[in-house]
Amino acid sequence: MSTAIARLAVYAGSFDPPTLGHLDLIERASAMFSDVIVGLGRHPTREPLFTVEERLDLVAKSARHLPNVRVEGFDGLLIDYCKQVGALVIVRGLRAATDFEYELQIAHANADLNPAVDTIFLPTRTRNGFISASLVREIASHGGDVSRYAPPVVIEALKQKFKAKAP
User: What is the mean pLDDT of residues 86-106?
Assistant: First the structure.
């Protein structure tokens, strides 16, 4: 009989907004690791649709059915955050071959900065392969139906956000 080894993984992103693709990766990571932190990176040069607090809340509500998942914001480099929380694994999603080239470059840089932290790549499910947060924002901004692309709590938040921005 084998004993499970506790292993903390971090799945990081901007989640502006969280999509069903993100949620699928969170669910799959939570099945693979004893604990998962969904790390919401703060980027001082980006202008997100949702505030950090709103995105933290949306991800937390979308993943509340997963008891081994927690959601946190962080500043700075992901590799430094992993060291701070004691994570030895970074989970990254891949939608297409072009994602792989970029993600592999980042994984190599992270391994150079901290060889103790490994990156694993999870391909998106076929049904989620084309979903991106920017696509969801664009469709929602024009009043389109994003129910196939985002969790219900996110759909409602998008409706409220774009209703508030309407002239």
Answer: 93
* 0.90 surpassed by pTM: yes
CA atoms within 13 A on the CB side of 78: 26
Instruction: Give the list of residues 6+ apart from residue 78 with CB closer than 8 angstroms, or none.
Output: 10, 12, 39, 41, 90, 110
Listed residue (88, 91, 145) closest to 116, CA to CA: 88
Sorted by where each begins, the domain ranges of the chain are 8-132
User: In 3D, which of 19, 94, 75, 15 has the Cα closest to residue 48?
Assistant: 15
DSSP letter at 76 equals: S
Evaluate whether the domain defined by 8-132 bears CATH number 3.40.309.10: no
At 55, list the tokens. 């995105």
Q: Which of 137, 35, 44 is nearest to 91 (CA)?
A: 35
Q: What is the pLDDT of residues 25-82, one digit of tens each?
A: 999 999 999 999 999 998 878 889 999 999 999 999 999 999 999 999 999 999 999 9
